Every structure is written in structure tokens, then in C-alpha cells.
Amino acid sequence: MSKYFGTDGFRGEANRGLTVEHAFKIGRFLGNYYGKHHRCQVVIGKDTRRSSYMLEFALTAGLTASGADVFLLHVTTTPSLSYVVRTDDFDCGIMISASHNPFYDNGIKLFNARGEKMDDTVIDEIERYLDGEIPEIPFAVGEDIGRASDYSAGRNRYIGYLISLNVHSFKGKRIGLDCANGSAFTIAKSVFDALGAKTYVINNKPDGFNINSACGSTHIESLVSLVREEQLDCGFAFDGDADRCLAVDENGDVVDGDKILYICGSYLKETGKLDKNTVVTTVMSNIGLYKAFDELGISYEKTDVGDKYVYERMNEKGFILGGENSGHIIFSNYANTGDGIITALKVMQVMCAKKSTLSELCKGMTIYPQILRNIRVADKNAVLSDPDVSAAVKAAEEALGTEGRVLVRPSGTEPLLRIMTEAKTKELCRKYIEDIEKVVREKGFCAE
């Protein structure tokens, strides 16, 4: 499952790495695969990138040419698509988005009928079809040709669902929302306004090119400035398709995914609702989160990076809370994927229930300094298997002991090697990350 589809779908530069031909063929395959014994029904959503429109049309053409009926949510969030797929009995769902990537990239994310990331067995078959290893699929003819219909009502029902989840009024709360010029602009403000909040919204005017550009969860500085300047109670920043959320407290300090897991995990524990007393994280979570959970007696499990793997572990073992420090947080009682707006609502719920500020809720957790460096390499596997690189990593681990850690891993979506260090000081983080990077460069692995 590595040639086209990574941990978060098929992603690449529009019409270079990911082309309209790819989209058309994916549509052709899915329409045929799910339509062998009945008329297949597929729902499609997209983010605000200019290229999302052409990919939407290409997918629609491929699906209808294979006899499927297509229902268009238009611009919407990834979690809303997941919700609509599972509640309206679609065969599958397709989200067109490259998440937090810049506008010139795009992606195709596939969801099964349960609103979960598509099963690997189906993805493998799609890849075989893209490579011509499966015989060409016959075109539908006559009455068997599919059609496309507007389905924006599905997005509106999702907004109603989000509002129904809340048990507290936000009246009197002044909240900042950074929509990243992405999908959240159609939903987030409506939800918080309906719950009584006074909202201050930025980056909610997408033009097809400004998605994630110096805004949103990957560039949270704009939201920090807004919260401080307007003296807001807190703020929430989403990414391009709103499956991520990071927060900013009343002082303008960033509350990342690890702190959100701490806030929500400790509250669920306190109220007796943390099923199996376990929170699922990825290997990228901060060592400070684990030390805080140890203090509270909360167990945790670690997965590879990717909300797909977090959800799989949660689903396998019946856990209800998990996520990544990047802001993909999954509340499995309410969603089958990361949902940025649900995450924001759940943080607000804890603030309201405990009558606390966001900064007060974070006090029990100390984040260890962390540095993450991305190095563009020609062959990720060659770097990871190199004995000199492995020796440099081991030396850093031994020097840090229990007061820090090192993680070297390949990106799941880009030709990058990610090196992360945590330690008591930034200086120590920098020293050990530079020691490892030096070996990588000296061995000639860099592609820059």
C-alpha cells in the first residue's frame, strides 16, 4: 500500500503526483467494486483547493461511468464526510483534500461504509488497477449509467449533530476560530454561534490558493495574536479539512494535541467515563504526557504515526480516546476519525464543567522541550537501515536515558526523514538531533 496510498490517502501535487486520470480510474474501480450486486452509492466531499473541483469531476465521471450514483457534499470537512457515510448507508465515501499541505497539493481519502479509513485489501486492489494489473472495467450503458446529485443537506445534518453533542451553553464565552481558509469555514462558526459563544473568526475567506497559507493549525501564530489582542477566553485552529485541532489558551499559549489528550483524558478519568482507563497515543507524543498520565494512574498505548493507526488500536481494544500531538484527536463514541470541531467542543465542555480556564486545565502537565527536523532524502529505507545512523541514534538514546528520547522515522506521505529529540533543555535536543543529522549528511543520503 505504498506506491500511491500512504497513511492518509493518495496525496501528491495536483496533476503531477495525483492526476485527473488517477481520480477517474479510482472512481471507475470503486463504482464497479461496490456495484457488482446493486447500484453503488458514493458520497464525495472536497476542501477549498482550486484543484479539488477537477478531481471531484473526474471521480464523479469515473463512478457514474461504472454505474454508481454520486452524492456531492461540495466543500465540507473530512469528519463530516465520515459521519454522512456511516449514517446514510453509503457504500463508501471519498474526501478530496491534502489536509494541512499547501494548495498545490491534493489528495484522495477513501472511507468504507462505517466511515472508517478504507480497508487495506481494497486499497491494494485499487493500486493494482491503477498499474494495469487488473483487466479493464466495462463501462455502464443505457439505464445502468449512474448520475450525480447535490447532497449538501448531509453537511447540514452534520452541523446539527455537532450542536446536539454539547451539554453546556457557551454563552458569555469569547472564542477565536482559525478556519485555515479550508473546509471549516462552512461549519465551525455556525456551531459555536448556535451554542451561544461570541466568535471571532479568521482565515475564513478561501480563494482556492490560500488554504493553510500562514494560518490554521500548522501556522497558529495568527490565532495566538487574535486571542491576545481581543483578550479571548480561548481559540481553536483547524487544518485544511478540519480533522485536526489545536487550541490557544487565554494567555496566548499553544495547547497542542498532547495537552488536549491530557485535559480530556484526565476529565474522563475523574468522571468515571474513561473506558478501560487507557488513552491511545502515537510514538510522537511528548514524554511529558506520559509522566502526567503516570501521576494520574492513566494507562496508555502507543502506535505508529497516523490517526489511521490510532483508530485501529482504539477499535481493536475498545478504547474511547486517542490521538496525535498534531491535533488529530479521536473520540470514538462520537466519530470514527479525527474531528477538529468535536475536539474543540470537548475541550470547551471540560472548561465549562470545571469552571476553569484553559491554562488552569493544563497545569498538571509539563511539556518537555522537543525539536523535530525534517530532512529530504533519496531513500528513507536506506537511511533507517544504515549501521552508522543506527549507532548515532543509540548513542543519543543512551546519553538521554529516562529524561528524554530520540525518534527517527520516515514520513508516510513525503520523501522525508523525520528526526525528533526530547530532553530537559532545548540545547540538549539540538545537540543530539545535530549529531544524528550530521551522520545522515556525511553518508550522502540527503536529496537536497
Walk me through this protein's architecture.
The chain has 448 residues and is α/β, with parallel strands linked by helices. It has helices spanning 20-34, 51-65, 78-87, 120-130, 152-165, 188-194, 221-230, 257-270, 287-296, 307-317, 340-354, 358-361, 380-385, 387-400, 426-442; strands at 5-6, 9-13, 41-46, 69-75, 92-96, 105-111, 148-150, 174-178, 198-202, 234-238, 245-248, 254-255, 278-282, 299-303, 321-323, 329-331, 370-376, 405-410, 416-422. The strands form five sheets. It has a seven-stranded mixed β-sheet with strand order 1-2-6-5-3-4-7, with helices on both faces. A five-stranded mixed β-sheet has the order 9-8-10-11-12, sandwiched between helices. A three-stranded antiparallel β-sheet has the order 17-19-18. The two termini are 26 Å apart. 51% of the residues are buried.
What share of residues is helical? Answer: 25-40%
Largest sheet: 7 strands, mixed
Low-confidence runs of at least 5 consecutive residues: none
Beta-strand portion reads: 15-25%
Number of helices: 15
- N-end to C-end Cα span: 26 Å
Structural class: alpha/beta
Roughly how many Å is the radius of gyration? Answer: 22 Å
- Strand line-up across the major sheet: 1-2-6-5-3-4-7
Mean pLDDT: 95
Net shape: globular
Number of distinct beta strands: 19
